[in-house]
Amino acid sequence: MTATSGIDRDRAESEATTWLVRLSDAQGDAKLREAFEAWRTASLLNAESWERARHAYDLIGKRTPRHQDHWQPYADGRREARSLPPAQLLAPRSPDRARRTRWLGPRRVITGSAVAACIAVLSGVFLPGLLIRLQADVATSTAELRNLPLEDGSRVSLAPESAIEMTFVAGQRRVRLIKGNAFFDVSPDEAHPFRVEAGKALVTVLGTAFEVRRGEDGIFVAVQHGRVRVDDMRAEAKMTTTLHGGEWTRVPTAGPIVQGVLKQDEIAPWRLGRLVALNRPAGEVVDDLRPYYSGAILVQSRAFARRQVSGIYDLTDPRRTIRDLASAHGAQVHELSDWLMIITAGND
Q1: Which alpha helices (DSSP H) does 77-204 contain, by range?
Q2: Range of the domain at 325
């Protein structure tokens, strides 16, 4: 018996994903069903890959999307809203049960691993961030903005899917940004500096307004007015940077600190429902849109992800923004359901 290679398994899972999408788009097409059955029965590997993909798909369909109250108004307003068809409609069936219907257009080919895609959906959308919630004093949900007064008279604004832990005891004014974006307007108190911890960066201020963003690529700090000190805690020899109004710095996960300047309205524009991008990879812009969309966004086109884009994007309707962004840069968006978007190359 010949052992199955990793390449063969990846190919079968990729093809299973493709069939999943095509069958969900044309559920009654007899010719498509015939072609699918030929593929499924061609090998045991194909059959096993299909069952794994369909099982994960079935699990997704049985769950209620997290934070549905935030995205439901957008879904209700869509003209072509679609939901996942029941898994049994995608299950193999005998030819006498197949119904003939018109061909619904060119086939859609979506590459990638069915298992990886479904795991991303299940873990990123439906499973609560229990660890984050246990650590946080305040946490926001998808598409939720929150403005809070702090015990010392300062204020904090939290972007969607952000979390903070706060310590205001014995003269301490300390906030830990666990995840996401926060904008602070700090009440002056020379005797008690206000400190924000974010990963390997420590921001210290007396009285000022500034943004701190924590992402996978590192920590970003931008000052609207006043002055802050940013300490890079990655190395034993601590490095310090001082920022004034309109200046920003990035403490990356690896590599040297980067600095620059911004206009006032480009600091924390998410508070006004805007995303400002200047010569940034489209993949990063999509990452910034994810907290505003209660679902999964899978980018399958590397060319699109690398493309440099600039613009002001609407955060209040992320689905439309993603479609417009993809269309403007030669990519296509496939919506497998109201909470799963897949971006592919334009000819897919």
Answers
A1: 114-121, 130-135
A2: 271-345
